[in-house]
Design goal:
- The protein has 315 residues and is an alpha+beta fold.
- It is built from 11 helices and 10 strands.
- The protein has 2 domains: 16-138, Immunoglobulin-like; 156-314, no CATH class.
- Helix content is 53%, strand content 22%.
- A hairpin with a 2-residue loop joins strand 8 (108-116) and strand 9 (119-125).
- Helix 6 (176-200) packs antiparallel against helix 10 (259-287) and helix 7 (206-226) packs antiparallel against helix 8.
- The chain is elongated.
Amino acid sequence: MLTVAAALPAAAHMMSLSTGDLRVDGAKVIYELRIPSYEVTHLSRPDQELLASVRFTNRGVVGRLVEKNCRPREDENAYVCQATWEFPAPVETLEMECRLARVTVPNHVHVLRAAMGDKTDQAVFDFSMTKAELRFRPPTTLERAVEQSAGGVVRALGGAPQLLFLIALALAARRRPELVSLYAMFQAGKLVAVWVVPLSGWSPAPRFAEAAAALTVAYLAVEILLLPEAGKRWLVVGGLGLFQGLPFVLYLNQTQYSAWFVQAGAAAAEALVLIPCWWGWGKLALLARGFQPARIAASLLLAAGMIWFAVRLRG
């Protein structure tokens, strides 16, 4: 499993975000899609493929695309599509289907902001949530909690890089109490990043956030290899959690979600991955004691982290 995972960082996108602005004008839906240029380099006809991934429905009737204009904007390093859909009757209830994750990368997230007169709404789409009903009313607390916690789950487990760190964290925990302390400090580090970075006024560049997160995997692997009996490893993990929290800072900036809801969903998902990984490492260590599986796994994680770091620095 780790051999395969080590090869993934070269192709993985830890963060893949696009934004959309939508305005309802009578029977028309006017939509602007803005996506980083590097996300469309593999598409032969991005103007067709991107807009074909988006569909609007009003009371069961699918909108008809009547106008579109797609072009790269070099000064913004973005590819922008502006399009208009038309319906036979004025829009009352609008449902949007977005499958951009199929034509970009599986962990792509599309953040939509919509307006109809003075009413607004927002939706977030990814590979697991491809449809949303735009109600143009403030969501209830329960609706916000469910939607935003689900977003946290997707962010936490949306790609191989996130999973690699959890695998390394499970490997670093030598006993059950240490597993609990490492997990707690990992979550604390992420929360500090999520709350403190926005207060500083600094918005980390996506490439920096990805490269820094890559180094956390490599650093933890070095800790396991060179200091197998080191004490106070929870302090190290707390510091690494700060860098692991940077992608969440960017996600929260884009979506304007509640940090508490997002982190609650992420923490639950990470625990569900971390516990069976730790249990599995313990069983493997007993079965293959003579082969030093922990050192082999740590070496693979170190290689994966450094490859990922080099790829993200190159852009």
